[in-house]
Amino acid sequence: MSHTRKRKLVARIWLCFTFIILTGAHYFFYRFSADPLNTFALTRGLTFGCVLWTTVLLGVVWMRHAWGRYVLITLICLAIVVFGLVALMLNNQSVDPIPGPVRMVIGGLVLYTAALVPLGASSALRRYLAPRTAGE
Questions:
Q1: Cα–Cα distance between 39 and 46 in angstroms, integer?
Q2: What angle do CA 45, 32, 89 make, to 5 degrees?
């Protein structure tokens, strides 16, 4: 296997790993948005939007468009902030130190943060998204 093919394979493995992590986070966010103790109706729409746009942007990155990686990182960071704020507001309304719905959000936030690691730190992914030259 040539060096270029190996790098491409490693980058695609990182993308698949990121997809799996994001799917787990979306599961936690869905459970949070469907919980009867969650008083914020906007979280269902936010969850649906995150599922839709992270999937679309991962597809864009798979097709080797470098801008998709930056937009995806920005979207994940924005979702972390919004879901974190909702969790803080919901936690202030509860007598329980960490109510069940907030645990779901924390799980999703941890997985979203974990998804940022390969997107930001993977040199194989950076090389995969670099402009193609005549030799590739």
A1: 14
A2: 85
What dihedral do alpha carbons 91, 93, 94, 99 form, nearest 10°?
A: -30
CA-based nearest residue to 61, from 94, 96, 14, 100: 14
Give 33-67 pLDDT, tens digit per residue: 998 888 888 999 999 999 999 999 999 999 999 99
pTM for this one?
A: 0.88
Round the CA-based radius of gyration of the chain to a whole number and report it. 17
Contacts within 8 Å (CB) and 24+ apart, 41-48: 42/86, 43/83, 43/86, 46/79, 46/82, 46/83
Residue type, 62: W
Q: How far apart are CA 128 and CA 61, in angstroms?
A: 9
